[in-house]
Prior knowledge:
Layout: E1 12-16, H1 31-45, E2 60-71, E3 82-91, E4 95-104, E5 120-132, H2 143-150
Antiparallel strand pairs: 1-3, 2-5, 3-4, 4-5
Amino acid sequence: xxxxxxxxxxxxxxxxxxxxxxxxxxxxxxxxxxxxxxxxxxxxxxxxxxxxxxxxxxxxxxxxxxxxxxxxxxxxxxxxxxxxxxxxxxxxxxxxxxxxxxxxxxxxxxxxxxxxxxxxxxxxxxxxxxxxxxxxxxxxxxxxxxxxxxxxxxxxxxxxxx
Length: 162
């Protein structure tokens, strides 16, 4: 039974192209390129993380303090886009965790046969801490900042231990 007071899990989704420069000598997307995918998707969904709508730095900034990444399947260069899902499994006083999946974009987003299996290439999580720009001390989230993250509340990503 679900709790009616619990927030409905919601993932944000950003589609992007695999660029030729993302592929390494092993003919698959390089691990550093995946980090760019995660950063680009997170910033597309949460554009106010350290900058205002005009792109000017704000009094606070969010910095990455930890990434945990599980590579599940190789992703080669291809013309079809991939989807990057982003959600928020935990919000602390001044830190926030993001969950991610990089997967095939749904058939509606790409020109492939209906019913084609959707492959998950990567699953990850990041922890970010909000800092005061001048002092670099952790700064608690305001109610407004917290509400933006709560709109994408979801479960912890399922990652395997070492």
